[in-house]
Protein backbone atom coordinates (compact mmCIF):
# COMPACT_ATOMS: atom_id res chain seq x y z
CA UNK A 1 0.00 0.00 0.00
CA UNK A 2 2.83 2.36 0.87
CA UNK A 3 4.47 1.81 -2.53
CA UNK A 4 1.18 2.69 -4.23
CA UNK A 5 1.06 5.97 -2.27
CA UNK A 6 4.67 6.77 -3.25
CA UNK A 7 3.93 5.96 -6.91
CA UNK A 8 0.88 8.25 -7.04
CA UNK A 9 2.76 11.03 -5.25
CA UNK A 10 5.62 10.88 -7.74
CA UNK A 11 3.16 10.67 -10.62
CA UNK A 12 1.36 13.79 -9.38
CA UNK A 13 4.64 15.73 -9.08
CA UNK A 14 5.64 14.78 -12.64
CA UNK A 15 2.22 15.75 -14.04
CA UNK A 16 2.22 19.10 -12.24
CA UNK A 17 5.70 19.96 -13.47
CA UNK A 18 4.79 19.01 -17.02
CA UNK A 19 1.69 21.23 -16.89
CA UNK A 20 3.60 24.33 -15.85
CA UNK A 21 3.80 26.63 -18.84
CA UNK A 22 7.28 27.66 -19.78
CA UNK A 23 7.91 30.84 -21.72
CA UNK A 24 10.41 30.44 -24.52
CA UNK A 25 12.50 33.11 -26.20
CA UNK A 26 10.63 32.83 -29.51
CA UNK A 27 7.29 33.56 -27.80
CA UNK A 28 8.75 36.69 -26.21
CA UNK A 29 10.28 37.83 -29.50
CA UNK A 30 7.01 37.24 -31.33
CA UNK A 31 4.68 38.98 -28.89
CA UNK A 32 6.48 41.66 -26.90
CA UNK A 33 6.66 44.44 -29.50
CA UNK A 34 3.88 46.95 -28.98
CA UNK A 35 2.04 49.05 -26.43
CA UNK A 36 1.29 47.44 -23.05
CA UNK A 37 -0.84 48.79 -20.20
CA UNK A 38 -0.56 47.55 -16.62
CA UNK A 39 -3.88 46.13 -15.38
CA UNK A 40 -2.76 45.21 -11.89
CA UNK A 41 0.24 44.52 -9.71
CA UNK A 42 0.49 41.74 -7.15
CA UNK A 43 2.78 42.31 -4.18
CA UNK A 44 4.78 39.47 -2.59
CA UNK A 45 2.28 39.28 0.30
CA UNK A 46 -0.53 38.59 -2.20
CA UNK A 47 -2.23 41.98 -2.06
CA UNK A 48 -3.17 43.46 -5.42
CA UNK A 49 -3.33 46.97 -6.77
CA UNK A 50 -5.64 47.57 -9.73
CA UNK A 51 -4.69 50.11 -12.37
CA UNK A 52 -8.04 51.28 -13.73
CA UNK A 53 -6.57 54.30 -15.52
CA UNK A 54 -2.95 54.75 -16.53
CA UNK A 55 -1.39 58.08 -17.41
CA UNK A 56 1.55 56.24 -19.03
CA UNK A 57 1.91 52.90 -20.77
CA UNK A 58 4.94 50.88 -21.82
CA UNK A 59 6.09 50.53 -25.40
CA UNK A 60 8.34 47.52 -26.02
CA UNK A 61 10.26 46.98 -29.24
CA UNK A 62 12.24 43.85 -30.05
CA UNK A 63 15.14 44.36 -32.45
CA UNK A 64 16.83 41.89 -34.78
CA UNK A 65 20.18 42.14 -32.98
CA UNK A 66 18.78 40.26 -29.94
CA UNK A 67 18.15 43.41 -27.94
CA UNK A 68 15.12 45.50 -27.17
CA UNK A 69 14.01 48.86 -25.89
CA UNK A 70 11.20 50.06 -23.65
CA UNK A 71 9.77 53.57 -23.47
CA UNK A 72 7.18 55.08 -21.17
CA UNK A 73 4.62 56.77 -23.39
CA UNK A 74 1.59 58.97 -22.78
CA UNK A 75 -1.57 58.22 -24.78
CA UNK A 76 -3.13 61.22 -26.55
CA UNK A 77 -6.78 61.86 -27.39
CA UNK A 78 -6.04 61.62 -31.11
CA UNK A 79 -4.87 57.99 -30.73
CA UNK A 80 -1.14 58.81 -30.85
CA UNK A 81 1.47 58.47 -28.10
CA UNK A 82 4.04 60.90 -26.74
CA UNK A 83 7.33 59.40 -25.60
CA UNK A 84 9.50 60.51 -22.69
CA UNK A 85 12.66 60.08 -24.80
CA UNK A 86 14.26 58.05 -22.00
CA UNK A 87 14.78 54.60 -23.51
CA UNK A 88 15.35 51.57 -21.30
CA UNK A 89 17.51 49.18 -23.34
CA UNK A 90 17.27 45.47 -22.55
CA UNK A 91 18.73 42.14 -23.56
CA UNK A 92 16.97 38.82 -23.23
CA UNK A 93 18.64 36.17 -21.09
CA UNK A 94 17.77 32.54 -20.47
CA UNK A 95 18.68 31.48 -16.96
CA UNK A 96 17.33 29.09 -14.37
CA UNK A 97 14.88 27.76 -16.97
CA UNK A 98 13.22 31.16 -17.42
CA UNK A 99 13.38 34.15 -19.74
CA UNK A 100 14.64 37.39 -18.20
CA UNK A 101 14.82 40.91 -19.59
CA UNK A 102 17.92 42.67 -18.27
CA UNK A 103 17.57 46.47 -18.45
CA UNK A 104 20.31 49.07 -18.42
CA UNK A 105 19.97 52.84 -18.38
CA UNK A 106 22.35 55.64 -17.42
CA UNK A 107 20.87 55.48 -13.92
CA UNK A 108 20.25 51.82 -13.08
CA UNK A 109 20.28 48.17 -14.09
CA UNK A 110 17.59 45.61 -13.21
CA UNK A 111 15.93 42.42 -14.38
CA UNK A 112 12.38 41.22 -14.92
CA UNK A 113 11.27 37.63 -15.50
CA UNK A 114 8.76 37.01 -18.26
CA UNK A 115 6.13 34.82 -16.60
CA UNK A 116 3.86 34.63 -19.66
CA UNK A 117 3.25 36.45 -22.93
CA UNK A 118 0.63 36.17 -25.67
CA UNK A 119 -0.99 38.41 -28.28
CA UNK A 120 -3.14 40.18 -25.68
CA UNK A 121 -1.60 39.61 -22.23
CA UNK A 122 1.81 39.64 -20.59
CA UNK A 123 2.93 38.93 -17.01
CA UNK A 124 6.29 40.09 -15.67
CA UNK A 125 7.91 39.66 -12.24
CA UNK A 126 10.58 42.09 -11.07
CA UNK A 127 13.50 41.49 -8.72
CA UNK A 128 11.35 42.54 -5.74
CA UNK A 129 8.86 39.73 -6.51
CA UNK A 130 6.17 42.19 -7.65
CA UNK A 131 4.14 40.67 -10.47
CA UNK A 132 2.77 43.00 -13.14
CA UNK A 133 -0.19 41.97 -15.28
CA UNK A 134 -0.29 43.76 -18.63
CA UNK A 135 -2.89 43.93 -21.37
CA UNK A 136 -2.38 45.12 -24.92
CA UNK A 137 -3.02 48.89 -24.87
CA UNK A 138 -5.69 50.39 -27.09
CA UNK A 139 -5.66 53.98 -28.36
CA UNK A 140 -7.98 56.45 -26.65
CA UNK A 141 -11.14 56.83 -28.67
CA UNK A 142 -13.56 59.68 -28.05
CA UNK A 143 -17.05 58.98 -29.33
CA UNK A 144 -19.18 61.82 -30.59
Question: What is the radius of gyration?
Answer: 19 Å
Mean pLDDT across residues: 84
> Structural class of the secondary elements?
alpha+beta
The residue ranges in which pLDDT falls below 50 over 5 or more consecutive positions are: 4-20
Oligomer: single chain
Helix content: 10-25%
**Strand-residue fraction?**
over 45%
Q: Largest sheet, order of strands side by side? A: 1-3-4-6-7-8-9-10
Distance between the first and last residues' Cα: 72 Å
- Give the SSE string: HHEEEEEEEEEE
Shape: globular
Distinct helical segment count = 2
Total beta strands: 10
What does the main sheet amount to? Answer: 8 strands, antiparallel, barrel
Annotate the secondary structure layout.
Layout: H1 2-19, H2 25-31, E1 34-42, E2 48-50, E3 57-62, E4 67-75, E5 81-83, E6 88-95, E7 98-104, E8 109-117, E9 121-126, E10 131-136
Amino acid sequence: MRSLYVFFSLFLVVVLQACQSKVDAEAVKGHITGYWEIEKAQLPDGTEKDYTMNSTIDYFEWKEDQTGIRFKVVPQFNGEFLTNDMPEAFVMLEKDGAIWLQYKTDFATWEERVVSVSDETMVMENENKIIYYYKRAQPIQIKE
